[in-house]
Amino acid sequence: MKFVKLYFMLIAVLLSGYSSCSKEESAEQQEEVEIEQPENDNTPIEEPAEDESIHVTTGSELLAAIAEAKAGDSIVVHGGTYALTSRIDVESSGTELQMIILMAAPDEERPVFDYSAMSENASNQGMILDADFWHIKGIDFYNAGDNGMKIQGNNNLIEFCTFSECSDTGLQLDSGASNNTILNCDSFFNADSSVENADGFACKLTAGSNNKFIGCRAWQNLDDGWDGYLRGSDDIHTYYENCWAINNGYLKDNSVSGGDGNGFKTGGSDDKTLKHNATYTNCLAVGNIADGFDHNSNRGMVTIYNCSANDNGKNYNFSNNNILTGLIIKNCVSLGNMGSTNATEKDTSSNSWMNGLTAKETDFLSIETAQLLAARKADGSLPDIDFMHLTAGSNLIDKGVDVGLPFNGSAPDRGAFEFED
Known about the structure:
Elements: H1 2-16, H2 23-32, E1 54-56, H3 59-67, E2 74-77, E3 80-83, E4 88-90, E5 100-104, E6 111-114, E7 127-129, E8 134-137, E9 140-142, E10 149-151, E11 157-159, E12 162-164, E13 171-173, E14 181-183, E15 186-188, E16 201-203, E17 211-214, E18 217-219, E19 226-227, E20 236-241, E21 244-246, E22 264-265, E23 276-281, E24 284-286, E25 291-294, E26 301-305, E27 308-310, E28 314-318, E29 326-330, E30 333-335, E31 339-341, E32 345-349
Parallel strand pairs: 1-2, 2-5, 3-6, 4-7, 5-8, 6-9, 7-10, 8-11, 9-12, 10-13, 11-14, 12-15, 13-16, 14-17, 15-18, 16-19, 17-20, 18-21, 19-22, 20-23, 21-24, 22-25, 23-26, 24-27, 25-28, 26-29, 27-30, 28-31, 29-32
């Protein structure tokens, strides 16, 4: 049971802190996880406990297991397609040390929650997670009549899942959802008939604060890769680390969607007064029809460290209309149409368009976009790529400033990826 306790403590640490914090903060978090050492008292070693997981192979078993779940339960979903005709409502919560786990069976084909029988309707989400402390891993949510998943609870971890061909945003955080972590997930080919709502991911409308996206990808969604538009919430903060927004504003068949087509839409609101504070580190915005990093009347504070943007309508677009309160951009790269960087208070330095430097295609090993959509590794992490990795002769190497992120050499490089010999 010591190992079970340690597992939940480690998950709690991940949910409680943003992974791109300073080295000192990371060390403090690590010190909080105390590993109990076995005592040398000649006590007989306990035999491993029998598998107490709940195994499901059919839709009815799945729905029953979720409905009856309690803190500490582990539900293992075996591979195959689960044809579902109605929304799954998740309402029972785990605890910080006893999360409820819903995960794909290891070493099997991925389970697909297939909602193709659903019609497009604002109530036809694939799953509403209105509960706390769930860990959902390795599930494909496909063709829901609205969101693939809508999160309304707190302190949940969604890992290595996909959300595709849904009739609204693939995964949306709303209704006060806070302190959730979306880790190594993909959202793509989502499109709605109204031609305005289907994003890859969204932390928007009435969402809470301190939600995090880490290692996620959004591509070819009708509207935006990420949407932070607010209607009700104000002065919240969302974090993005190592996330890639690719070719949004195009449909699955590569035709132009008619949606907004931004990579990362930082915020916005009906009355153009609400503040959605956002921090982006080591993110990529590539080939989006409109903006790579988009203002959209957000009145909050936006921080962008070591990000790269290529071949968007405008790579960075922060206008003078309904201007941001504050904007920090450091160590970033723009290849293509730069755009504009305006804010009431602005701190932009050591970027590729400043100090006499200009990013060129020859600075990079590759700018071939297709590799960004390669399969993930077995553990769910992003594929190894050379896209926008710096060549040995690039003048962008060691030309950044220290913003608290790890770096090689005498100073940070400019862009999302540090040069490695």
